[in-house]
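Async update (no meeting this week)

Hi team, since we skipped the sync, here's where things stand on the single-chain job. The sequence we agreed to prioritize is pasted below, unchanged from the tracker. I ran it this morning and attached the output directly underneath so nobody has to dig for it. Comments welcome in thread, and please keep replies under the output.
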Amino acid sequence: MGVFRSVVLFVLAAIAEIGGAWLIWQGVREHRGLLWMGAGVIALGLYGFVATLQPDPHFGRILAAYGGVFVAGSLVWGVVMDGFRPDRWDITGAVICLIGVAVIMYMPRPA
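Output:
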């Protein structure tokens, strides 16, 4: 159950952070206004709280692993929300990042 919970938290963190950044992007670059930017700031704040719920106690490990989730999640967000078409190198890079997440977070360590 620990790995499943951790993966769910990574997905929630990605939605909050990537979604927050996207909302701010929409507010500024697409001129959608302060409401969009404010929602983005709130979502980014929620990301910070979600990250603290990871079962591993090491901040550096959590954020390093989350970096890989962010890379892959950003590409998925672009596909869903903006019609972005990743090429084979985008996909290859995302897969490498997710392998890194698995190594950092879920490989056995001495107790």
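Quick observations from my side:
Residues 2-29 form the longest helix (28 residues).
The chain is about 80% helix and 0% strand.
Reply here if anything looks off.
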